[in-house]
């Protein structure tokens, strides 16, 4: 294995108990000898993951808290300093996908929750941890947004807004810290994880159609790790994400129109309420 800039580094990773976050943690620990401090709400999942790592389990520690609670990030920063742990990399991966629906059908609590978890949690984590991170010679922040930040779709007003806010915030922070910290934005498309747990169940035929445009989780993790290795500022990952990125640049709002029409004729139950 060729030497990589983040080999043997200490990584703070939110959303570490499942999906992309769990995959990234496993790769960093097993392939790069990193020490990962995982953050999630489900302690049982974190314990199970630590056990799955076997003899590499000592490289994984975790804290259980809701990433949308600002005070918890400051408590984490204080704990790291007390225990003389120098973090090198922060990966903000935790996120939720609210149900696809018309904006008028959301309640304020759902909107606030999406903004707090998808956007403000990253603001809180960077505010609390940047002073410590910048002491590292390999300081880095990787914020995982979504292809929804590149092109908004019908039924995703809340999700797209939260991820677009994260995109703008990350790009500004990148320029403010270009000389002392590598800051990356990741915009993955649909990925085969449990992020769709809040959506309506679909028929087998519709689910197969969804799988065709969704990227395998392990493959998505591989893309992210390779992008970090090359220190790419922006990663647009997945067939659908590339379509949304390039389509919006070329066709503007017509890209949203085309995508919405595809959603309408897809037959997926989770899209039905949008077009009723």
Explain the layout of strands and helices.
Layout: E1 10-14, H1 19-32, E2 35-40, H2 43-52, E3 60-64, H3 70-82, E4 89-92, H4 108-133, E5 140-144, H5 157-176, E6 182-188, H6 204-213, H7 217-229, E7 234-237, H8 239-251, H9 253-265, H10 272-275
Parallel strand pairs: 1-2, 1-4, 2-3, 4-5, 5-6, 6-7
Helix pairs in contact: 1-7, 3-4, 4-5, 8-9
Description:
The protein is α/β, with parallel strands linked by helices. It has one domain: NAD(P)-binding Rossmann-like Domain (Rossmann fold, 3-Layer(aba) Sandwich). Helix content is 49%, strand content 13%. It contains ten helices and seven strands. A seven-stranded parallel sheet has the order 3-2-1-4-5-6-7, sandwiched between helices. Strand 4, helix 4 and strand 5 form a beta-alpha-beta unit. Helix 4 packs parallel to helix 5. The protein is globular, with a radius of gyration of 19 Å.
């Amino acid at each position: 294995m060729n030497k990589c800039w983040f080999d043997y580094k200490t990584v703070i990773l939110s959303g570490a108990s499942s999906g992309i976050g769990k995959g990234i943690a496993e790769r960093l620990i097993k392939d790069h000898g990193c020490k990962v401090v995982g953050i999630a709400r489900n302690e049982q999942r974190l314990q199970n993951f630590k056990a799955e790592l076997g003899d590499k389990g000592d490289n994984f520690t975790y804290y259980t808290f809701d990433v949308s609670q600002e005070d918890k990030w400051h408590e984490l920063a204080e704990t790291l300093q007390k225990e003389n742990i120098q973090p090198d990399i922060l990966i903000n991966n935790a996120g939720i996908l609210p149900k696809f629906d018309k904006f008028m059908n959301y309640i304020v609590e759902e909107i606030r929750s999406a903004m707090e978890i998808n956007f403000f949690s990253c603001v809180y984590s960077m505010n609390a941890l940047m002073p410590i991170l910048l002491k590292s010679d390999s300081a880095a922040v990787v914020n995982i947004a979504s292809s929804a930040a590149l092109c908004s779709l019908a039924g995703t007003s809340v999700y797209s807004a939260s991820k677009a806010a994260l995109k703008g915030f990350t790009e500004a922070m990148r320029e403010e810290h270009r000389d002392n910290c590598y800051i990356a934005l990741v915009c993955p498309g649909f990925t085969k994880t449990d992020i769709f747990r809040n959506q309506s169940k679909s028929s087998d035929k519709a689910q197969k159609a969804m799988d065709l445009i969704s990227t395998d989780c392990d493959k998505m993790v591989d893309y992210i790790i390779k992008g970090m290795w090359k220190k790419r500022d922006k990663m647009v990952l997945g067939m659908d994400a590339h379509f949304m990125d390039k389509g919006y640049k070329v066709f503007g709002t017509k890209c949203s129109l085309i995508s919405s029409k595809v959603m309408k004729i897809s037959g997926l139950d989770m899209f039905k309420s949008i077009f009723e």
